[in-house]
Amino acid sequence: MGLKVLKFGGSSVADGIQLTKTRNIIEADPDRRYVVVSAPGKRFEIDNKVTDLLYLCYTHMEQNLPYDQVFQVIADRFTAECLNLDIDVDLQGELDTIMDNMKKGCSRDYIASRGEYLSAIVTAAYLGVDFVDTANLILFDKKNRLLEEETNEALSEELAKHERAVIPGFYGSSAETGEIVTFSRGGSDITGALVARATKADVYENWTDVSGFLMADPRIVKDPRPIDRISYKELRELSYMGASVLHEDAIYPCRTANIPINIRNTNIPDDPGTIITADVEISDRVVTGIAGSKDFAVIAIYKNMLSKEKGFFRRLLMILEDFNLSLEHMPTGIDTVSLVISNKAIDGRLDEIVDEIQSQLKPDNIETFEDISLIATVGAGMSFRSGVSATLFTALAEAGVNIRMIDQGSSEMNIIVGVATSDFNKAIRAIYQAFA
């Protein structure tokens, strides 16, 4: 099929058993040439992720508390894996270097990145292929924003020198200072996508502990249907609303290069998983997926003759900017506008925000609702079918769910409803049953 880039998540490299599965998957297909790995995840329910232990080390350093024992737990975990799998690598030298840097007061990002760094070194030695560090290949500016063109050029040039390689995910470095910079948690997905684009891969396989995407959260809906194929646009909508199989920022590099992403299950390697493509496939399926997020506040503003008042929305958005708030949604009517904002972002300042809106814009009435959840029903086929909204709203009405807000995207690919958080699970189940 052509060159493939693989990314293995923390559960896929958690221990020797999982690493053996990983090797079997890679060796089953000679096209699988470049492998990106996360730091080892949990081996069992009450276990710790290596990255969490590394963050704990840094916390201890900040508080001038001993961190040697925590770091030793990490060291013992990697050492035991090497012994069990008979991996020939100078692990102790790497561990000593990390400890020396910690004693010198290294950065939080440096410490956090060492899980991926060690994981890649061990995996490369186990597979007998090259280890390629991303420290000077994935580049960030002084505000820790990814330098896309420079990164693509550096990765392309370096990886062209290696027939096969293992690459650590999650981090790169500052183009100015050379210091380690990390992505947000789950950022190894982004690294995999960047490597796929740089190598002009035919497929980016993202291996994790689930067999692709499901139409709804299995913790809410019993045995939801799997999604065998989904477009980047649909996935972007679902990821934004809480579907968390793939880091949402990992979509963009592959989308721009038109590289399909295949979500696969390390524990069930024969399962085809979910294919993510640029093309929107219109089929008999009306709804592709349902996802939601909790903990939003709604500020509902009423002002008579609002539609005639020039500059109202500009001033309203400037107030949000002054509070450093991003807006999730803004449904409007002829005399009304509602602001949907994350409660986490509001951070207890709701009364202060409302007072500022009242002071500057003089609305006739403001109401606030703090216990709101958003649910997105997403599907490329929705815009080509009549009666979708009627089916959705009827299902919610029959389930006794009161809709507090409705917002439909301009692409007509999604319908977002706001409901009381107490109705969240019930609403998702009702929507699923209506379209599954």
Radius of gyration: 24 Å
The largest pleated sheet is described as: 8 strands, mixed
Helix content: 25-40%
Report mean pLDDT, rounded to a whole number.
Answer: 93
The beta-strand count equals: 18
Number of helical regions: 14
**Could you say which structural class the secondary elements and strand pairing correspond to?**
alpha/beta
Shape: globular
Physical arrangement of strands within the biggest beta sheet: 3-5-2-1-8-12-13-11
From the N-terminal CA to the C-terminal CA, the straight-line distance is 33 Å
% residues in beta strands: 15-25%
Spans with pLDDT under 50 lasting ≥5 residues?
Answer: none
Gist of the model:
This protein is α/β, with parallel strands linked by helices and 436 residues long. It has helices at residues 16-27, 50-62, 68-85, 91-103, 108-127, 148-159, 188-198, 232-240, 251-256, 312-322, 343-346, 350-361, 388-398, 424-435; strands at 4-8, 32-37, 130-131, 139-140, 165-168, 171-174, 180-182, 203-208, 213-214, 226-227, 229-231, 261-265, 274-277, 289-302, 336-342, 365-378, 403-408, 414-420.
